[in-house]
Amino acid sequence: MVLEPLQTSPETLETLVTGVNLLWVLVVTFLIFFMHAGFAMLEAGQVRSKNVANQLTKNLLTWSVGVSVFFVIGAGVSSLVGGGGFSPAFVAENPNDWVGWLFGAVFAMTAATIVSGAVAGRAKLRAYVTYTFLLAAVIYPVVTGITWAGAYISFGGAAFHDFAGGMIVHGMGGIAGLTAAYVLGPRMGRYNEDGSVNVIPGHSLTFAVLGTLILAFGWYGFNVGTAASVFVFTDGSLQLGAFSYVGRVAMTTTIAMAAGAIGAAGVAWAKTGKVDTLYVANGLLAGLVGITAIPDTTSWWGAFLVGGLAGAQLPIVFSFIEKRLQIDDVCAVFPVHGSAGVLGTLMFPFVAAEAPAGGIVNAFIAQVIGVVAIAAWTIVATAAVWGVLKAIGQARVTPEHEQEGLDVSEHGVETYPEFGSGESVVADGGMVSENVRTDGGSKDD
Amino acid sequence: MVLEPLQTSPETLETLVTGVNLLWVLVVTFLIFFMHAGFAMLEAGQVRSKNVANQLTKNLLTWSVGVSVFFVIGAGVSSLVGGGGFSPAFVAENPNDWVGWLFGAVFAMTAATIVSGAVAGRAKLRAYVTYTFLLAAVIYPVVTGITWAGAYISFGGAAFHDFAGGMIVHGMGGIAGLTAAYVLGPRMGRYNEDGSVNVIPGHSLTFAVLGTLILAFGWYGFNVGTAASVFVFTDGSLQLGAFSYVGRVAMTTTIAMAAGAIGAAGVAWAKTGKVDTLYVANGLLAGLVGITAIPDTTSWWGAFLVGGLAGAQLPIVFSFIEKRLQIDDVCAVFPVHGSAGVLGTLMFPFVAAEAPAGGIVNAFIAQVIGVVAIAAWTIVATAAVWGVLKAIGQARVTPEHEQEGLDVSEHGVETYPEFGSGESVVADGGMVSENVRTDGGSKDD
Amino acid sequence: MVLEPLQTSPETLETLVTGVNLLWVLVVTFLIFFMHAGFAMLEAGQVRSKNVANQLTKNLLTWSVGVSVFFVIGAGVSSLVGGGGFSPAFVAENPNDWVGWLFGAVFAMTAATIVSGAVAGRAKLRAYVTYTFLLAAVIYPVVTGITWAGAYISFGGAAFHDFAGGMIVHGMGGIAGLTAAYVLGPRMGRYNEDGSVNVIPGHSLTFAVLGTLILAFGWYGFNVGTAASVFVFTDGSLQLGAFSYVGRVAMTTTIAMAAGAIGAAGVAWAKTGKVDTLYVANGLLAGLVGITAIPDTTSWWGAFLVGGLAGAQLPIVFSFIEKRLQIDDVCAVFPVHGSAGVLGTLMFPFVAAEAPAGGIVNAFIAQVIGVVAIAAWTIVATAAVWGVLKAIGQARVTPEHEQEGLDVSEHGVETYPEFGSGESVVADGGMVSENVRTDGGSKDD
């Protein structure tokens, strides 16, 4: 083989960078999209069988309505708030700009879908869809506008650091969910008159764990994929971009996930002598949430620490929300996404492999400012929307519909017509008859 | 770092193109393969619990038998019909040629597996496997032979356009399914003597929605992956290949999927006042089918339009098939894959971002010719195979076996031995006893 | 466009190789990780509903505990045994070294999780976690140390060949599972006093088949991804690495999977006249296991042969283990992973597309040595650990807990509080009543 000068131009290298980066971003975008299957299964598994179809429909519509709204409005609002003017996604100069839009959209829809887990079992479908519309159009885009797009938050040389959305996506979603659940009030029968709590177990741990593992799979796209630039073309030469440290992101994501499951299992075991399966699953997710703001900078021991604490806080915070605050956060979205996201974001300067820019104190203050700003905006906006819906009597289904189950009342379907609700259902293979829709007459309901 | 002339040859660029393209095609091929899990869950969820294992077995054997046959025969038939001579897949000059074969095979198996949803609950396993054999060996390869391989269909300078198989794969599969379901006749109890219809609800909406979301995930491989060339090496230089417009494919696929769910939800809500979960799920899929022929050329508003119409037609066409034609298309494969595929294929010239070659009229005529040719061949071939099977009494299980359920009669298993069929089953943890296998004694069966 | 000399250096090509290879390895690593969802569903589907949460928890903790241990200890042990000194994973010179660690970890965790299927329904959680700890820290690392790391096994110029872990991962896991199941003894009621066998059917074939298809999806990462180097940089130029033959790996993996399902279906049909769904699913997996040691070298007809035999042996070996050896291998992990892995590994020289180095006889002897060495170590180490646990009364739950189900006794949860166990469950949302726990006793079993 005769070596001869390469008949090409610098543009070849730029083309190489473009093609490979597009390939990578597309693959991880698909993975992040698949998290919707994870959320759907995780949430479906944690609700009563009479409300499963409702939960699934909400998940399908979160994506469908949300991504459409984010295409037409939301992405433009984000750029507007970020100082780039209103440039909606449908106006793309180059078709490949839509890859960037879709990459942003799957993050946005993750924030949106978290909320559905908190308001399960009693929110009206139209109320939920209305909120999703506003979240995708304005609420979430404002959060990304002031952070990823505008980068307005900093303190003393330290910029607010949230690599893949531990606070921007998960913290925001978890806080929004808790706020909505508070405004909406608990499911019927969740609390007794004396303030004691009834547990309403989900209908299928298998689906919940399946959802957990699908989410963990997609999360590799979420975190590792946020290292979006395989290559960069600078000063006329091709270099590794975020892929110069992608191995750290992959490692810390893995370790924090593992530590989260172990942390939650440990606390559950210490409290009750048994290892609650749902705590282990949600602990694994809390570990992932915990590291999501900081997988690019955290040391290996920091990943163990952040993940372990994010998992360990889960049973404690869940219990606090349930028993003290008496907020009915059905799928534990606040302990999993909210408090774990805040925790990881705030731990940034203390677990970094290298000292953060601006120093530890300034970096911590910048993190606090970011967390407070995002939380405040999310709480205010979410409370306003659900408050208005509640005020006009559109937030919540009627008590009759809630008792009957939302599947029948909102969707006209039954999720498992052959299973689980007694002889009359088995007998006709079809819709449940009136006497079946008594909610099982359980003391736990 | 001293810059020196790159010690390499033009072959380096070719190697780069080869390696990166192989990587991309492999990844999307895996995603498309995963659609079998989606079909398995979607279909299993839509059948009675007594027929679930049968449906799952059909899905496993569709892939196993089909891909073997396509390897030994089918790929060769496709190249033969396409004018390239009979070159079966096992004769590969270079091992990496098998990547191209596998990429083709996952599309072929998608067409094959669609049929199983239409003939659920009464087709004999051996009949179904026989049809799958012939589909993978001849029926589908003829379709790809006259289109993707031979490119024979055109009119006045306009070539038949089907980017990822909206008609070639999905339209073909949906039409084949409807044909087979017609020949086979409806399930027992599906229609009353007065012509009225009994609904036979599927046993698990959760599995159906899980399947839907797995399919949507895999569909990104299906559509975006059909933009198979990241790079091309032309005139001695490396350029973006299909990746010069891959962002459009990703965007239109996403938007049409979303619009499909919204369109179906809207029509269902308008008709009944409720949002049927299965319509939303199938609408999302119909939106995907609708765009599959044309994701590379469609404008953003066209994607909303095609997806929305594909979703909106679903409840209407389903009802027409069910009530007027009285064909028992169990999993709605015609409204989801057939009519939606035809619709999107025909809309090609009207929603394209740029005027199609040959002009709108000629392009539309070319599309009509392609749709008619594929439909005619599929109907004739499918009716012939199932007609012969029916004539020799091998198409359908006995009424006793159908009532008992195909799981027991064809497979000797019960899918859920602990659930759902009354006390006798719960008591022994094993097989259902005789009195349970009465098909529920329902008017709906 | 003016062509000018490329302003770059040889380092550009090295950077290209690094970036693209990292991208590929990350993607396939995510796919292999997702196999945990597959194992979780496959195993959950094959156990009684009273033990599902236990199985799911074991799967979650296998990953969480195992990957942590492999990070801190196991990877270091592997390098130590392999002659490279103790270099634990947390000491990485470059963050991207962690990609290599994670790639190794997902293989290690696959071996670990296989065991949980064999000991289902009676192993104590703490015993299982202890074994997982030791497997991840020492038992599996010794196996990789003497093979992939150290490459100590060879005979007459022929080196032990195990491309992706047909023996090292699957054979090892299957043999470990059988050993542990033997030490632990069968589930209560599995065998009658006269030696006859009671079948204890799993609670959901749907989950089992879902798990199968998720595993097959992930297996493309496992096998094809073991062709880990897209490019290599040698003699100053960029070449295809393992991607020079990646198409063979993809083809043989596909064909063997298909042949495995067909082989198992055929034997099941020949034996009983029916096509058992679980045999088809497990046969598909056995076909995959069979080819895993040799997808890079096997001819296309060899893939049919290896896969077909791996599938065909499944019902026979399963029956032998169950009836003759009377070992209660709940999820058939030995026939699927053990004997199929051994079979494929030993068939290496006979089905290779090109004559193996050292000749067929020497190559076969090298394979035998490798299989025997790995099997012996695995049996001894596994028997020792479970033997000690048994001796101190920590291996197995009490008969009361086993009868009650491990979900309640070990985890304090019920997987399906609304389904399947008769009226008492529907009424109280809680525990199954005594008369339900007869575990099989059916005339049909």
From TrEMBL, chains A, B, C:
Which UniProt keyword terms apply here? Answer: Ammonia transport, Membrane, Transmembrane, Transmembrane helix, Transport
Q: Where in the cell is it found?
A: Membrane
Membrane topology according to the record: Multi-pass membrane protein
- Please give the biological process terms from Gene Ontology that the record holds: ammonium homeostasis
Q: Which Pfam families match?
A: Ammonium_transp
Q: Name one GO cellular component term.
A: membrane
On the tree of life, the source organism's domain of life is Archaea
- InterPro entries, sorted: Ammonium/urea_transptr, Ammonium_transpt_CS, NH4_transpt_AmtB-like_dom
Q: Where are the transmembrane segments?
A: 20-39, 60-86, 98-121, 128-151, 163-184, 205-222, 242-270, 277-294, 300-321, 333-352, 364-389
What molecular function does GO assign, one term?
ammonium channel activity
Is DNA damage given among the entry's keywords?
Answer: no
Asked whether the UniProt record includes Protein biosynthesis among its keywords, one would answer no
Domain (Ammonium transporter AmtB-like): give its ranges.
23-416
Q: Which PANTHER family match?
A: AMMONIUM TRANSPORTER
Q: What does this protein do?
A: Involved in the uptake of ammonium/ammonia (NH(4)(+)/NH(3)). Transport is electrogenic.
Would you identify the family this protein belongs to, as annotated? Belongs to the ammonia transporter channel (TC 1.A.11.2) family.
User: What is this protein called in UniProt?
Assistant: Ammonium transporter
Q: Write down the species.
A: Haloarcula rubra
